[in-house]
Design goal:
about 220 residues, Arc Repressor Mutant, subunit A, 3 domains, three-stranded parallel sheet, two-stranded antiparallel sheet, 9 helices, globular
């Protein structure tokens, strides 16, 4: 199988668009279509259904994705091993992170990293911490910089980089801002903006408060 064809297939499957895949790969849209068509011809299967302007994986396409990701990941790892033997650090590094960390924590770190290792191509994906950890386990990402789950999966190697305080924030004009001591009963009386239901942060919040946050007045 041609590696460029596999890369084009994965790019289309992840972006859901031939044009966006072309932008990601820095090639033309016809070139992406040609590579996908070549892969379909080689495998003698249809990999995508084109419905109007949208593109969806066929059953065969869905079945092919995990194998392609594994092949591309192993190829990149092989390149990295060879480069390390020669003292050269380069290649692509796929990183997953949340928007909060990516916007507020990573910019200076990544700026310093790219100055040290100019031959490394950073491929950064923004997603929830849960998705990032799962992507590492599946081999879709090399690294995730994210909120750790309360119970870390055994197959996931982790290292704590920093601790983020978790607190309740209100406007200076909010009624609770005038109270010296705020109880849990006070909190549940007011609408709240909380992390998404399925996130690690939401689970930590529920554990700290000792309640099911679905009982709160959720504003957003």
């Amino acid at each position: 199988m041609n590696i460029q064809n596999l890369s084009a297939f994965i790019a289309v499957s992840e972006t859901g668009s031939f044009s966006r895949a072309a932008s990601r790969l820095f090639i033309t849209q016809p070139a992406v279509s040609k590579r996908v068509s070549a892969l379909e011809a080689e495998l003698d299967v249809k990999l995508f259904d084109r419905i109007g302007k949208s593109v969806q994986l066929t059953e065969a396409g869905n079945a092919l994705v995990p194998s392609c990701l594994r092949i591309l990941a192993e190829l990149e790892e092989s390149r990295r091993i060879v480069n390390n033997l020669s003292g050269h650090i380069g290649g692509q590094l796929k990183i997953g992170t949340s928007h909060h960390i990516g916007l507020h924590r990573l910019p200076p770190v990544l700026s310093h990293y790219t100055q040290l290792y100019k031959q490394v191509d950073l491929d950064i994906h923004f997603m929830d911490s849960e998705e990032a950890c799962d992507a590492v386990l599946k081999g879709e990402l090399e690294i995730a910089i994210a909120t750790l789950p309360e119970k870390t999966p055994a197959k996931l190697a982790t290292q704590i980089i920093w601790h983020d305080p978790l607190g309740v924030v209100v406007s200076r004009k909010h009624p609770l801002a005038r109270q010296k001591n705020v109880t849990l009963k006070n909190l549940v009386e007011h609408p709240a903006i909380l992390p998404s239901q399925s996130t690690y942060t939401r689970a930590l919040l529920e554990k700290m408060l000792g309640i099911n946050t679905s009982k709160l007045k959720i504003a957003m």
